[in-house]
Write a structure and sequence with these properties.
The complex is a heterodimer of chains A (130) and B (90).
Chain A: E1 5-10, H1 13-23, E2 27-34, E3 37-43, E4 52-57, H2 63-72, E5 78-81, H3 85-94, E6 99-106, E7 109-115, E8 121-126
Parallel strand pairs in A: 1-4, 5-8
Antiparallel strand pairs in A: 2-3, 3-4, 6-7, 7-8
Chain B: H1 4-8, H2 11-22, H3 28-39, H4 45-57, E1 61-66, E2 69-74, H5 77-86
Antiparallel strand pairs in B: 1-2
Classes of the chains: A alpha/beta (130), B alpha+beta (90).
Chain lengths: 130, 90
C-alpha cells in the first residue's frame, strides 16, 4: 500500500488552484470535472510523480467549523518540506502571504505557519539534513 | 483579578512566560510546540489552554483576536508591581 494522495479542504477550488500553483509553486496534476466539484490535485514540480495534494471542496457542514477551530488555535492542517525556510518565508511574505508563526527552531526542525487563504493554516518545515 | 503569585507558582506557566518573552504574539499551537520541543512539557492542548486562562486571569498575559486567529502576549504590568513592592526603596 502506498500513499499517493493527501488532501486539504478548500473553500473555493479556483482560488485554491491559483494560490497553490501561482503562490506556493506547485503544478496542477489532474483537473477532472466531477459534477459540481473537480478532482483537482497538485504536485511538486520537481517530483511530478510524487504524492498529490487534492484540493478538496469543504462543502460538508462539519468541515468549516472544524477548520475554523483549528485556525483559531493556530493549528496547521498539514505540513510541506522546504530546503531553505528563511528564503521561503521571505519569498512568500513578499507575495503577501500572512504568517501566524515566522520560522522558529523547534528542536532540530525549523517550522513556520502561514494562511493558505482557503481557510487553512499550513506548516512548512526545514528538516534536519541526513 | 487572579493571584499573580499563584499563577507564577507553576513551572509550566513560567515556561509559557519564558516563551512569550522570547517572541510575543503566539498562537496556542506555537506555544504548545515550543513547550514540547524546548521544555519537554508534553501537556495536552487543553491543559495548556487552562494554564493560559490562569495567566490571563492574573493579568500576566493577554489574548487578542486578529481576524480568525488568536494570539497570546505577555503583560509585564503585574511583574512591575512586584518589583515596586519590595525592590523600590522609599
Amino acid at each position: 500500500m502506498r500513499i499517493y494522495v493527501t488532501s486539504v479542504f478548500v473553500d473555493d477550488q479556483a482560488k485554491a488552484e491559483r494560490f497553490y500553483t501561482q503562490v506556493l509553486g506547485f503544478q496542477t496534476k489532474f483537473d477532472i470535472p466531477l459534477g459540481e466539484a473537480r478532482w483537482l490535485s497538485v504536485v511538486a514540480p520537481d517530483d511530478p510523480d510524487g504524492t498529490q495534494l487534492l484540493l478538496e471542496p469543504d462543502g460538508h457542514p462539519a468541515a468549516r467549523p472544524f477548520k475554523e477551530a483549528l485556525v483559531a488555535d493556530g493549528i496547521p492542517f498539514t505540513s510541506f518540506a522546504v530546503d531553505d525556510i528563511e528564503a521561503e518565508h521571505r519569498r512568500l511574505e513578499g507575495l503577501g502571504v500572512r504568517f501566524t508563526q515566522p520560522p522558529t527552531a523547534m528542536g532540530p526542525t525549523t517550522t513556520a505557519v502561514f494562511d493558505d487563504t482557503c481557510g487553512n493554516l499550513i506548516q512548512i518545515a526545514q528538516l534536519p539534513e541526513g | 483579578m487572579g493571584d499573580v503569585f499563584k499563577a507564577l507558582a507553576d513551572p509550566t506557566r513560567r515556561a509559557i512566560l519564558d516563551e512569550l518573552a522570547d517572541r510575543d504574539g503566539q498562537t496556542l499551537f506555537e506555544l504548545c510546540s515550543r513547550l514540547v520541543m524546548k521544555h519537554q512539557l508534553d501537556s495536552t492542548r487543553q491543559a495548556i489552554s487552562q494554564h493560559l486562562d490562569v495567566l490571563e486571569a492574573a493579568g500576566l498575559i493577554e489574548a487578542r483576536r486578529e481576524g480568525r486567529y488568536k494570539f497570546h502576549s505577555i503583560n509585564r504590568g503585574p511583574l512591575e508591581h512586584i518589583v515596586d513592592r519590595w525592590l523600590e526603596r522609599p
